[in-house]
Design brief:
Largest sheet: 7 strands, parallel
Order of helices and strands: HEHEHEHEHEHEHE
Radius of gyration: 18 Å
CATH topology: Rossmann fold
Number of helices: 7
CATH class: Alpha Beta
Strand content: 5-15%
Number of domains: 1
CATH superfamily: NAD(P)-binding Rossmann-like Domain
Shape: globular
């Protein structure tokens, strides 16, 4: 194996990818599997997760779980420990993305967003780190955040942006707390990403609007493809990212400097 291939090789590693039935999660699961990792495809959509796991091979398997349910999250990692006996990589990708206007958002909508995107992702991270610590082999955790966590980009995203800002703060705290265990924790902040599996929109769907979608604001002139977000994730979880922790890596085609 060439030095370059060794730099990105994940043979013998076990990776949990949440929200892996579609989008960034699915693209990342494919790439990490191609690098040699065994993938636990975790998603609320069990049928979709099973289809991805079957495609990947390499002893990969699917687990259905609900990010809004602590017991479901615990069961996911119990299954990982039981089936694999270790965990090396977590891609903390699952979440929700409803849009609510600042003036109309209700307390229930606010609390639901934070419960899933903040508390749920925190519990996933905590449970993964417990397995990594128990194995004593270190580990890599990548939280999938958003450019919205650091810069307002799309209208009607106050609740979502707040959740992603909180997730980036958790990234930094976890990087500090787990550094002694050689568990590296980072965030990826995508901008606009084209759907990997486009789905029909409901008649009531309102297209998003805002700075991110304005002509000329993305310097590269288009939304990212999901595999263009998966590439930096592979870097962070492989030997190439061995000296990176506590960082928020922006993957937005230059929007944030335009």
């Amino acid at each position: 194996m060439s030095p370059v291939n060794e730099l990105f090789a994940l043979a013998g590693k076990v990776a949990v990818v949440t929200g892996a039935a579609c989008g960034i999660g699915k693209a990342t699961a494919r790439l990490l599997a191609a690098a040699g990792a065994q993938i636990v495809v975790a998603d609320k959509d069990l049928a979709g997760a099973e289809a991805v796991a079957e495609e990947l091979g390499n002893a990969s398997f699917a687990v259905g779980f609900d990010l809004a349910n602590d017991d479901s999250i615990s069961a996911l990692f119990h299954r990982v420990n039981e089936a694999c006996g270790r965990l090396d990589i977590l891609i903390n990708n699952a979440g929700i993305y409803p849009r609510y206007s600042l003036q109309s958002v209700t307390r229930a909508q606010w609390e639901d967003m934070q419960k899933i995107n903040v508390w749920g992702c925190f519990v996933v991270l905590r449970e993964a780190a417990l397995l990594m610590r128990a194995a004593g082999n270190g580990g890599r955790i990548v939280n999938i955040s958003s450019i919205g966590g650091i810069r307002t980009a799309v209208h009607d995203q106050v609740t979502y942006n707040a959740s992603k800002a909180a997730l980036d703060s958790i990234t930094q705290s976890a990087a500090l707390e787990f550094s002694g265990d050689n568990i590296l924790v980072n965030s990826i902040l995508p901008g606009a990403v084209a759907p990997l599996d486009p789905k029909p929109k409901a008649a009531s769907h309102t297209p998003p609007s805002g700075l991110l979608l304005a002509a000329g604001r993305i310097l590269l002139g288009r939304a990212a493809h999901a595999n263009e977000v998966a590439g930096p994730i592979l870097m962070l979880v492989s030997a190439a990212g061995a000296y990176i922790t506590g960082q928020t890596l922006i993957v937005d085609g230059g929007f944030s400097i335009s």
